[in-house]
Amino acid sequence: MAAQIQPKPQTRTPILLNKIEASQDVVNTAVIIPKEDGVISVSEDRTIRIWLKRDSGQYWPSVYHTMPDSCSCMSFNPETRRLSMGMENGTISEFILSEDYNKMTPAQTYQAHQGRVTVVLFVLEMEWVLSTGQDKNFTWHCSESGTQLGLYRTTAWVSGLQFDVETRHAFVGDYSGQVTILKLELDSCSLVTTFKGHTGNVTALCWDPVQRVLFSGSSDHSIIMWDIGGCKGTAIELQGHNEKVQGLCYAPHSRQLISCSSDGGIVIWNMDVTRQETPEWLDSDSCQKCEQPFFWNFKQMWDSKKIGLRQHHCRKCGQAVCGKCSAKRSTIPLMGFEFEVRVCDSCHESITDEDRAPTATFHDSKHSIVYMHYEPTTGWLLTSGADKVVKLWDMTPVVS
Prior knowledge:
The chain is mainly beta and 400 residues long.
């Protein structure tokens, strides 16, 4: 039911501590129980399971509870031991877990959505349950009475949701690639702003209330850091994944961002460096280096008797250039490009070896990650995969 892994001494890499592999279908959400050797998981196989580590070193289920429909998402509050769980049929069911995590008591049921619940959050300070669904509705309920307090209609399915307790701002990321900021009141909400930087759907959000920075991950493989509190509109792009980003979490004590993707990649980003915004791509009818016309510039092609060329852009300066003037590639870590990207010849000459020093480390989880959870008190990371396996990692060698 659970395999005990004997970690080998390694340096600067996550250490695989355990694997839990008893689910019959994909584990959509799983969390580490703080101060306990335990894990809570909810799965497409309709089960809620609480796994506790036994003396043998293996994780065995102390609770195995079957729901009437697939369990799509979950939020767990360790202070109250309240488990809020969203389902395929649009219902949110809440349970209170016993102190020894051997029993679940039903507490509340919300008829929150007309379709699959995509994200659920329990906010203890407000006694609110925030949720989003495939019906394109964002709702919040009172966890005491179970009544719906408000509703906001979104433009697309919501796949990322974060909440700032101090300002009562909700950050909503959807399938159109847009992030919406809403100001919530007791029974109403107002639209603050919307912004978009991704070419694919938003798949994960992470909010740091101290730095007042929002991180968004997308199916376009990129991560964007939005400086919400700085009031300067700064947006830093991070490129370090080959597939869609599935999870984000921030370790404020070390100023490191952890991201996971569906190809199994785990990337640790050093955010304690001065990063640069990527430039806007410039428009031009001809190469801004050699002045050769691009293929749509018929007049210059006729006048100069030259064949039109395809337009490219230098990732460092943003200029429109032809392929001959941008034949070289380089990493630009401080601009978020940990992989080699196209740069023009003059920018390539200006990039030093020091500029190419990586600001992220890359690790392979060896399974297709669908969800991740980081527990900062222990330094442990949990990843659940499309292979129905939950893995526990000691991240202290790389997050410190």
